[in-house]
Amino acid sequence: MQELRLLCWAVLLGLARACPEPCDCGEKYGFQIADCAYRDLEAVPPGFPANVTTLSLSANRLPSLPEGAFREVPLLQSLWLAHNEIRVVAAGALAPLGQLRSLDLSHNRISDFAWSDLHNLSALQLLKMDSNELTFIPRDAFRSLRALRSLQLNHNRLHALAEGTFAPLTALSHLQINDNPFDCTCGIVWFKTWALTTAVSIPEQDNITCTSPHVLKGTPLNRLLPLPCSAPSVQLTYQPSQDGAELRPGFVLALHCDVEGQPAPQLHWHIQTPGGAVEITSPNVGADGRALPGALAAAGRPRFQAFANGSLLIPDFGKLEEGTYSCLATNELGSAESSVNVALATPGEGGEDALGRRFHGKAAEGKGCYTVDNEVQPSGPEDNVVIIYLSRAGGPEAAAVGGGAPGKQPPGLFLLGQSLLLLFLTSF
């Protein structure tokens, strides 16, 4: 037993004295330091003592930091990696360093960074990422860094900042973010307001400038005039019943999403059918109803045709196309959504809509079309059951009224001819 203890102590003593050949290891001011700076290294060398608390790898030629790069030194409190050639910091490279207080990644070429690794570094107080090629910071990148006091992001390629990016940094006292090519659109207004009111020290504010649009190029953010900005709003509309038309095979469902907002929102359709969910970024067809490059289509026309003016057409609407149709509008300031449930009614018969509510149908006299009588049995006061007649005659592109401005209701009716389909739609 005594021999085993001695063997263990010998092993531990050997580990404590181990040091990669290119580096110098020792104790200074109570810290276990490994100095590997200026060694022309192209990879993090193995063999560090497990009790190292400070590691310098600055001024080498490291091209990347792979997963587990610092697994040997979990007690690190300071890590210096400035002036390398690092382009990629892989997921898991920094995550094991839960006691890290200072991290210097400045003066590299980092464009691909595992931001999620920062979520494990709750003890971090200094983070230097200046002079890199970062173009994007996730909104939740700093969510765990409540001890962070100094953050340097200057001289990168940041075009935008998500609102609330710095909100978790309750201990922050110093932020450098100058010399980034910011797009001075509505999405940056929040940062201007925050920078003017925060107690955080932000030096070189005259160098926090706009790069675009061109008319604002070079304008300091703190002198930016108010911009006309508004969050999206949407209204999903459809046509009421049209009497006196003849019923023929072949139908088109036509919906229109009226969108407002500044900057102009991006329109997205979510369609939940019995066969599954369909996601469409509008538009996916041109004014002639044919698929745009990159859109999946059968015989040149997608099953769901989303036009630039906010219209959505579904040729050959049938039971497989029943379900919930939602339009979602998003811009830099937020999003808005509106939905409608669509169910196909069999002429002359009763049934249930997509929400399971009962209705009764009967033929109208002399016109060859169908309507719904007053025997609808609502399940609650919120019910809004509407009859819609839709047609295919003239081709689906007719309903798109090509050339309509995005987000504006097209002139005329959605109805395309004289053949009609009886539909029930419940909006909410």
Automatic annotation (TrEMBL):
Signal peptide (UniProt feature, chain positions): 1-18
Pfam families the UniProt entry points to: LRR_8
Alphabetical list of PROSITE patterns matching this protein: IG_LIKE, LRR
Domain Ig-like: 232-343
Swiss-Prot/TrEMBL keywords: Disulfide bond, Leucine-rich repeat, Repeat, Signal
Cited Gene3D superfamilies: Immunoglobulins (2.60.40.10), Ribonuclease Inhibitor (3.80.10.10)
InterPro entries with a match to the protein in the record: Cys-rich_flank_reg_C (IPR000483), Ig-like_dom (IPR007110), Ig-like_dom_sf (IPR036179), Ig-like_fold (IPR013783), Ig_sub2 (IPR003598), Leu-rich_rpt (IPR001611), Leu-rich_rpt_typical-subtyp (IPR003591), LRR_dom_sf (IPR032675)
SUPFAM superfamilies named among the record's database cross-references: Immunoglobulin (SSF48726), L domain-like (SSF52058)
Protein name (record): Ig-like domain-containing protein
